[in-house]
Amino acid sequence: MADLSSLADDVLADILLRLPSPEDLVRASASCASFRRVASAPRFLRRFRSLHAPPPLGVFCCCADGSAGFYPALPPHSSALAATALAHTADFSFAFLPPPCDAWLVRDCRDGRFLLDRALEGSTAFTEVAVCDPLFRRYILLPPIPDDLAVSVENPYVQRGGDGELQSRSSEIFLASHGDGSISDDDRPFTVIWMACCRGKLVAFCFASESQQWRELTPPKHYALSIRRVMGVRLGQRNHAHGCFYWMVALTRRWLVLDTQKMEFSIVDISLVLSGRAMMFSNQITTLESRDGKTAVVVSDVFRADKRCVLYFYSFTYFSDQWQLLNRIILPEEWGYRFRGITGEAEGYLFIKLDHARENLQDQIERNVEYFWLDVKTMQLESFCRTNSLTVNEAYLYCGFAPSLSLPSM
């Protein structure tokens, strides 16, 4: 005969899974000890996370003047209250990192964690790397890439900034989601990918927090990676969906793809959906996760004779030439000259970056960069947040909290 207490916990878990948001789960778990016991169980949390994606809380921006900061979601967005509380509590100056703190540069944000690096003396390619949690002010310094691996990095091409800039970088470094959510401990592991585009080749390494070791990844052998041996390979904006990362390879109409489940690279030809459209910037193409497990691709057509901005939504099947046009959305007319690409996606929303309006060009207070969200299902547009800076070099959509902070607390 089944243990009645276990049966009661199973029934209670099924009820709590039906709560509409993580905030409701926190309130429920604070109401009594039995609710908290069920809600804080690792197995329950894995099930709840699979049903409730982490909410978008704001945008972290790195600006042209060297400043950086977190800009929370504004009302009436449902995350506004939590985002404001986060902005007041977390340390987005990263002053808890080893000094001097202004030497650190934000390179990525994923699953509530931030990845930062700072230049190493005497090195133009390699940096000191830290993974941190700005809410609880905790960080981990990664060990340097071993010499036997680093020797393969020759004449790396600068990916961000210019050769004469203090904050220039020769590497593409980012966080990858780890595993399938089956890890039950509080501090779930993470993976860091480090890439350098050298003359005629790509070099990539992977760091796993479990082993505390770097290993080399095998890049694809494809002529698209060596079409400009003098210039070197140049990668565009990084996109992500269903465990795969995508980059436009400059001067081509191809994607470089990294499947982080297999840790394998490939090249995908996407010229079919780009035909007839002027692709001046890499952020004109974005990937997002469809709930049916497929990858949706959004192509922004902005260089049009009518000055309008049109978004084309496609269903993309990996390693297939089958591209299905799902929808075509014409953005508001006044956005034609303000549209500056798509920053990211979360929970079925696209986050669109707009420059300041023309009427605010002479107003120092109103000159800012604004972010809107677009509900892909209903095509509803709404303001998400805005910055007080004229020029944003990099923007990272901040969703949820670090895995170690996911337990409901009183």
Automatic annotation (TrEMBL):
Species this chain originates from: Eleusine coracana subsp. coracana
Name of the protein in its database record: F-box domain-containing protein
Entry-linked Gene3D superfamilies: 1.20.1280.50
